[in-house]
Amino acid sequence: MLKQKDLKRATLIEACIKGQCTVKQVANALGLSERRVKQIKKEVKENGVKSIQHGNRGRKPKNTIPEETRKRILELRSSYEYEISNFKHFQELLKERENIDISYSALYNILRNAGIKSPKKHRKTKLHHRRKRKECEGMMLQADGTPFEWFGDGQKYSLHGFIDDATGKITGLYMCKNECLLGYLEVLRQTLENYGIPISLYPDKYSVFFPPKKVDDHITIEEQLNGREKGITQFGRIVEELGIEMFAASSPQAKGRIERLWETLQSRLVTEFRIHHIKTMEEANIFLIQYIEKYNSKFAVEATSKKNVFLKLPKRYNLDELLCVRFERTIDNAGVFSINNSKFQIMDRHLPPKTRIQIYLSEKIGMRVKSNNKTYDVQPLELISKDQIDNNSLDYHKWLADVVIQLIHEFYLKDAKASY
Predict the structure, then answer these.
(1) Does residue 229 contact residue 169 with C-beta atoms inside 8 Å?
(2) Beta bridge pairs of residue 200
(3) Distances (CA, A) of 145 to 141, 250, 252
(4) Helix, strand, coil percent values for the chain (each to nearest 5)
(5) Of 316, 343, 293, 279, which Cα lies nearest the Cα of 150?
(6) Mean pLDDT, consecutive 10-residue segments, the chain of 420 residues?
(7) Which end of the chain is more exposed for a tag (fewer CB within 10 A), N or C?
(8) Structure confidence at residue 394 (pLDDT)
(9) What are the backbone dihedrals phi and psi of residue 252, each rounded to the nearest 5 degrees, phi first?
């Protein structure tokens, strides 16, 4: 039985064959060319009115998605691993992990017809002028941290990261309980090891990067004698030693590339963590190393200039000592020095009184004391028993006295946005 559209066409063509109207009139009525009307007229004369109907009517298109595949896609979509992924990410994961290669439009239709909406939020935001990218890779890295419920357990953890302004490449990612010095030092470590020393760093102004205004003018006598006019943080000292220029962004919009990076990672990483059964910070930090490569291969762009201006890290640097909280002290007649009102003694009695020493403090090396490139063992003046050592500390710190562990937590894990 002919459909209404075909019935109209058949009626007009038969009228044209009988001479009741002209080819031109039929062409105008059907919105066809006169040549096409003549072809249809010939087909009807030879094969009858049934030739009006399209030959493929009633047949399934060759590119129709098999019902079995459609059902499999919907089953996967409702699974724990994939249920919160956005549609684009889900399409990539189907190809990558399930061997289902489907176009975005076809997948979109399947999901929307099943009443499924993409969880990716499309918010109306104010339009901001996008700053032109730097020309060369390594010219400037944007730095930031973002708190988020990465594991879906109601707990927020802060992801720290650097992104190259010219290419959009992630150069480092590291997760901690909160935004802190440790997170940024580990991101800097990854950057130095895998890329080199950037020309400049562009963080916000309310973090470990710059001292609060109220302590900005509190400079030691020694620093003043060395020509320093403003206060500096531990992180600031490290990048200054590396020759990295660091200047603060005035607003989140000023470093929009890393803000958009967080939107992308918050949309994708939760699903990636579910797929790989990652539920802790430690597991996440191991996974993030390989995920950086996956992200960069998909989202990084070519820089305007082919010149790479990352500088190779000189061999003279020991990263474990460079990426440390560092102090300088003078020992007394008994070889004693203090940090934050805690007293320590150097175990070597041959070191002369008033010797200037360098103290390195970090999670990786504990406390290391050096003078003239020689390392000395130290111990707190008041030793404590093992059962008094902080049970929450990492295993490789259990040899340290409780006071040293507290110092590490104070300088490394303290909230970066808090004043100090």
Answers:
(1) no
(2) 245
(3) 13, 16, 11
(4) 40, 15, 45
(5) 279
(6) 70 87 88 88 83 59 80 94 93 94 93 87 54 92 95 94 96 96 96 97 86 59 53 92 91 78 95 96 97 96 95 94 93 91 86 93 88 88 52 46 79 73
(7) N
(8) 40
(9) -60, -35
Tokens representing residue 220 in the block: 């030691």
Distance from C-alpha of 158 to C-alpha of 146, rounded to nearest angstrom = 5
Q: How far apart are CA 404 and CA 91, in angstroms?
A: 50
Tokens of 125: 């935001």
- The answer to whether residues 77 and 116 touch, using CB atoms and an 8 Å cutoff, is yes
Residue 414: HSE in the Cβ half-sphere, 13 Å Cα cutoff: 16
| Tally of residues, the chain | 420
Asked if residue 169 lies in contact with residue 133, where contact means CB atoms within 8 angstroms, the answer is no
Spatial contact of 81 and 278, defined as CB atoms under 8 Å apart: no
Look up tokens 């008041």; give the residue.
382
Tracing tokens 């020991």 back to the chain, one arrives at 318
CATH superfamily of 141-299: Ribonuclease H-like superfamily/Ribonuclease H (3.30.420.10)
298 three-class SS: helix
Q: Are 86 and 267 in contact (CB under 8 A)?
A: yes
Q: Which amino acid is at 121?
A: K
Tokens found for residue 6:
């075909």
82: Cβ–Cβ under 8 A, 6 or more apart, which residues? 76, 90, 93, 271, 275
Q: Is 154 left (phi over 0), alpha (psi -120 to 50) or beta?
A: left
Domain ranges of the chain: 4-52, 67-113, 141-299, 324-412
Task: Give the tens place of pLDDT for each residue, 395-418.
Answer: 434 545 677 788 888 888 888 776
CA pair distance 47, 10, nearest whole angstrom: 12
Query: How far apart (Å, rounded) are the C-alpha atoms in residues 331 and 329?
Result: 6
Beta bridge partners of 311: 197
Question: What confidence score (pLDDT) does residue 420 get?
Answer: 42
52 in Cβ contact with 44 (< 8 Å)? yes
Instruction: Give the model's pLDDT for residue 64.
Output: 76
Side-chain-side CA neighbours of 11 within 13 Å: the count stands at 9
25: amino acid identity, one letter: Q
Other Cβ atoms closer than 10 A to 393: 17
Amino acid at 146: T
Separation in Å, CA 382 to CA 174, 275, 401 = 35, 49, 9
The β-bridge partners of 163 are: 142, 170
At position 98, the amino acid (one-letter code) is: E
Q: What is the pTM of this model?
A: 0.77
- Helices 87-98 + 67-77 axis angle, to 10: 110
